[in-house]
Write the structure tokens for this entry.
Amino acid sequence: MHDERLETRGEGNDQGNILQTLIDISRIITTSHDLEETLSHTVELIAGRMAVDVCSIYLYDENSQELELKATRGLSASAVGQVRLAVHEGVVGLVIQEGKPVNHSDISHHPRFKFIPSIDEEQLSSFCGVPLIEFRKTLGVLAIQNRESRLFTPEEENLLIAIASQISGLISKALLVDRLKREADETAREGREGETRRMEGVPIAPGVAKDQVIIFHRTRLPEPEYAPSGAVEDEKRALRRSIDLSEQEILAMIEDMTKRVGQEDASIFHSHLLFLEDRAFIRKINRLIEAGASAGWAVHHVVMDYLRTFQGLNDPYLKERGADLEDVGFRLLQHLGMASRTHVAIERGGVLVAEMLTPSDTAMLDPLKIKAIVTSVGGFVSHAAILARSLRIPAVSGLENIFEVLKEGETVLVDGETGVLFVNPPESISKEYDRYQETRQVYLTHLEDLREVPCCTKDHQPVKVFANVSLAQDLEDVDRYGAEGIGLYRTEMHYLMSESRPTVDQLMETYARAINVAGDRTIIFRTLDLGADNSPPYMNFPREDNPFMGHRAIRYQLSREILLKEQLTAILKVAHLGTVAVVIPMISQLDELHQVKRVYRDCRREIVAETGEEPPEIPLGMLFEVPSSVLMCDLFAGEVDFFAIGTNDLTQYTLAVDRNNPYVNHLYDPLDPAVLFLIRRLVEAARRVDKSLLVCGEMASDPEGCLVLVGMGLRELSMNAPLIPLVKDRLAQMTLPELENVARIALNSTTAANVRRNIRFLMQQHQN
Ligand code: PEP
Ligand code: MG
């Protein structure tokens, strides 16, 4: 079976003995069939690697407070499962009592020595035992012994401690699996009803909960009749009234949520107010009313139109904003008397199961009653998800055919951290989760504290974390999550949300607002990345068979140079307000960069001619997201002021996997070693010319991705701001040498799946 925990190609791996031992132990564990087999293979391996006469594992039973010999190489095999020691007995018990290693040159002269006739220990002199501990829970003792009477050296003792800390997690898992298996056998024997089923979705909000399923059918946005019931003016008045009432309701909701979850998270509903205050949005509705439609039909039509645009965007964060708009649309229709909301005000407690939830649905939930949320649709960055996290309701999304796989009244355990669900979980799983939850509570409190804490590795190497900004609302998150600047300002949204091409003045106004939020922190504007699946109707993009490979980003802008000129002019004119830089997307040829620089010089010249003033020089960077530019990066290095990597596109173009195509989604992973090689090439190139290198694709906030990136030498990461505390938490758990080891192992792994598995394995060891 191709399923090792730590599988590398084995090149350049200089961790030597310990790493190879760990690799082999993990291999044993994944290929063993049961706990006994796992432990006996493990002791065989350690005895061989450490060249000792005996290696044994004793497991500790909390209930009886006894240690049982579970596996040995060197002692009598018949003693396994027979020898039991109370913690106050023997040197092995002393290891547990003291919680630290015991190293002795002649065990028979140790004051705690206990003679046990059945284990053939008479010939043995030296002893070194170390505790096996996971999450502060004592699991047992790992002991080595030799016939020769000598103290084990500090190096040997340290190696044993390292092995013990690495295998504790694995043993704990093996124990859990063993318990689950026994439980399953018991269930089968007793023929109990309610078979356990395991499912996997996407983790949305952390936490664990177990309760009964409550099915919630949310009312979809209804489509009202086209024909109005009154005259145009009556319909317009009804619309105005509905907007006013909706605004009042949202304000009341903000007040209520401020009390419940605090001002910051309640301000999510400010984005709903922004829709209602958006003149273009309201104008579109009014125009349809003037053309003869009812106010309800017009609202529905415009909302659906926007929703289609949101759905068509390739940024998952922006896609999620669709739910906010749908929420607003629903509210408007409600006040026009065209819809009535099914209330999620559920009396009894349970796990809420729904197709999707809007932010308002989520805001109405009572966390004392709703223990967890499970949905089909709704990503990590949706506002509903953010609220679920604020309300401390664990949530999992991405479950297909949700009403078929989960039935009303079934007991379900929801793990919001891994996305795993257990229907009818056995007692052993529930218990294990209870234990886990206790530890998690400490972790959550710790995450909150991280907002103010600078981002660094465990050994205090600083890493800069920036925010990615697309919508105006995202600007609010920059301070909220402690970003050190705006690493990627996606300028497309302004164009996509306007009815016609924004003027230079309008661009200046928008950019000045963003610079203002950044204050004295850097803000990097990316020039237009339209095309592919993002194109406003007024630009009349050509129909292309292969748009991602076609007229996109800088290629399109250079073909309509005025677009680039307008953007650069606007940015140059407001650059004095802050610390501004510009990054160019999708450069694949050197010639494109030369053309951009020529346009930039023209813009400066024209500004001087127009105003008589020299605008500030703006650092110009390029986004490496096409393999050709990465392969030729040394050519570009001298031409740009800084490097940035767009891992989303770099992954899709390197692996030839459309980032939005569900059929090939399983092949899309920025941690694919092929992508990692390209990133390493950029790190080296940037280092050679001493220029900064920023990562701004989703990989920067990926739980495993951020570790590899920093391990590879990256020190600037830009991400959706709500993910910043999580990245801080991940990085703070490892030292730079450990992260470098993570990167080395990742670069030596064979597939993206193995990269992730290996990193999780290493991470797990560090948490023990
Ligand atoms: C990327 O490609 O990684 C990137 C940051 O840009 P976008 O996701 O907007 O294409
Ligand atoms: Mg891109």
Remarks:
- The domain at 232-335 is CATH 1.10.274.10 (Enzyme I; Chain A, domain 2).
- The chain has four domains: 32-190, 197-217+343-442, 232-335, 459-732.
- Confidence is low (pLDDT under 50) at residues 1-7, 10-15.
